[in-house]
Amino acid sequence: MRSPSFRTLPPDGGPLRVLVVGAGNMARAWLRAILASPDTEPAGVVDLVPAAAEALVRRAGVPGTPTGHDLAALAAATRPDAVVDVTVPEAHLPVTLRALALGLPVLGEKPVAATLPEALRLAAAAEAAGELFMVGQSRRYHRHLAAFRDHARLLGRPGILTTDFFRAPRFGGFRETMAHPLLLDMAIHAFDTARWLLDAEPVSVRCEAYNPSWSWYAGDAAATAVFEMTGGIRYVYNGSWCSGGLETSWNGVWRLSGELGSASWDGEHPPEAEAVHGADGTPLARGEAGREARGPEGVAGALAEFVHALRTGVTPTGEVHGNVLSLAMVTAAVASARTDRRVRVEPLLDEALTEALTVATGPEAARLRAWPSAGEALAVTPRGLHRAG
């Protein structure tokens, strides 16, 4: 994947001043991470409900932090270095567009946007502004997951990756009324992780979504999706949000089969691997080999990579052009479930580009019109969104 160009900040030794937009539950976690890091400090908190922003900084123990209801106004008053967007998915487009237009890099929550056309608009807007827009897929930052990825690199060519996810959360609220709660709200974590583990992109998917008879969700709370990834690899996701008893971890249970052996991870503890060689499958190695990441985990890990990218110009793993493909996997899986057919990703991306062009304006629209195709603009076509021959 190519390295998009974005403005860097001078490594002057001072902490990055971050403006947090959104004051909900996840904003608490992000504000804690900003306060805990020696490389960042809060510049302010924005929320449409001023009292919510004031309550957040008070609970965080920094009551003197500026708050407000308007991003542009508070940015003008506080002069931050960057924005962390912790709003609901429907607000990701307007918040990120506004921040980029103000010349501010953005670290956003998943999903990159509410829809695939909106995600493409944000990729184009980041290009036009020359600013970094990174999506903080926080579940990538887990020391045991990093070790699992190390195992994968030792097992030769990957062929099959699977995720089993079975839990029974009773959230209440909007999730229980969604048409596809598991696919739309949870599966993106696993889909994004699969792309990262395999260093591969989605080609097509066949997905069945359904709702067990005892489910308390209005929509389909269970799904099985089989993705073809570049290189002919298959990724299989099998999950349910209404399966109590013997629940998996929130990270799910993973297994990778490669030409030289297999690796597994239960989502919580160190992974295991067994490699073999020869036609007779003579054991070569078995156990918890591999190194583990020592850096920050979860949202703190995403924040650390964002700061590092802005200081060095090194493209982070969640940069918008790449992260669009994680949302594309969700979009394609939902489309497959709704139409009962195999859905290819590349035509889906081009349909989204056509839709984005009908509403985009200004520099954002100019960038979209300059794209030869969505796949090429996202720098994935050279790696092959086309079916492997």
Q: Please, could you describe this protein's structure?
A:
By secondary structure, the chain is α/β, with parallel strands linked by helices. The chain has two domains: 210 residues, Rossmann fold, CATH 3.40.50; 145 residues, Dihydrodipicolinate Reductase, domain 2, CATH 3.30.360. The chain has 13 helices and 15 strands. The strands form two sheets. Strands 14-13-12-11-7-10-9-8-15 form a nine-stranded mixed beta sheet. Strands 3-2-1-4-5-6 form a six-stranded parallel beta sheet, sandwiched between helices. Strand 13 and strand 14 form a beta hairpin. Helix 8 packs across helix 10. The protein is globular and about 60 Å long. The relative contact order is 0.16.
